[in-house]
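re: ur msg from earlier - yeah i can do the L-homoserine complex, just paste it... oh wait u already did. ok heres what im feeding in:
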Amino acid sequence: MINIAVLGYGTVGSGVVEVINTNKAIVNKNAGQKINIKYVLDLREFPGDPVMDILVHDYDVILNDPEVEVIAEVMGGIEPAYTFVKSALEKGKSVCTSNKELVAAHGPELLRIAKEHNRNFMFEASVGGGIPIIRPLNQSVTADDVKSITGILNGTTNYILTKMSKQGLDFDTVLKEAQALGYAERNPSADVDGFDACRKIAILSSLAYGKNVNYEDIYTEGITKISDIDFKYANKLGRSIKLFGKAEKKDGNFYVFVAPVMIDENNALYSVNGVFNAILVDGNVVGNIMFYGSGAGKLPTASAVVSDIIAAIRNLNTNVAVEWTEEKLEIADFSTSKKRFFVRVSGNIDEKLAKINKVFRNVLVIKLEELDDEFAFMTDVISEQKYEEAASQIDGIITRIRVE
Ligand code: HSE
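and the outut:
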């Protein structure tokens, strides 16, 4: 028998307890021994819940109990999670977490401490919820030079964009609906401003390239400026708009960004709709491989946490190597990143097209019959800097969306 503790009895924490109880026979068989949840830590009481028998409010009870060998940290946020996780690893306990803020901010340090104590720090649930992506990147895609990782990494924004695309609704209407359904937080900023996806692509790119990508260095743009009219153009072009977190290696440089991108049906991520997430990895020898599934939610996320608990138990006194050092990975200046741009302009096309063609060259014009006070165009592949310089010479630009 092995004793574990669960820190936090919220959505994911109660999911972890439920998965271990519901799938007891399978989980114990895969772990090679019976898993006993000795403690659950939470500040709250849960009258009537069987967890009351093992509920503690003082973390030191868990930290100082030598019988607890694996801890699942599912509280979220940096503190007190960071202090709890660090002290657990220093005490020789393995830790499994779903906490992307913690992993993005302190991942390489916690991995080093785990290695120094011959224990493990695991974080499968921190990206893509129930989708296996951390272990595959760390243990399977090891023979490849990863050319790029492109992810739809946030279920809330993918739900909102899918609704806007399929039902012609505007952003505010869909956001309110998503909040009413519990898909979006009352304060939706972490999701709609791209911060959540930013931390997730920082984790994935750090793992793929072996050095630390600081999430604060990543160009991050959310979906709040995407409108129902953008989708009218996208539909006419046979395209969709998705929030991408992307890391790519180009000409010896590393580019990482989070931004809405217009894609066509040839892109493998085109059909990833609703709350689903997907991650497309392009390796120089394996080619394209895609990971798809539920990126959030109680049981899918708990499934990933419990898979880490099982992996930690299978490797109790062995540190599973993770290539992610504290050395900083230099990200190239985003202004040098090159893409096509979709641009909407207010006013009369006949008055503006000559100037647009002069500064942008070779644009493809798109006109919607129902809108006579604006038009759009698509540029060739140009750098961000070149786009900004050219755009500053055109009056009436409403919006621009990158195109892949
Ligand atoms: N808010 C996140 C999402 C939860 O919408 O994807 C999972 O990290």
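cool cool. The domain at 134-294 is CATH 3.30.360.10 (Dihydrodipicolinate Reductase; domain 2). ping me if u need the other ligands too
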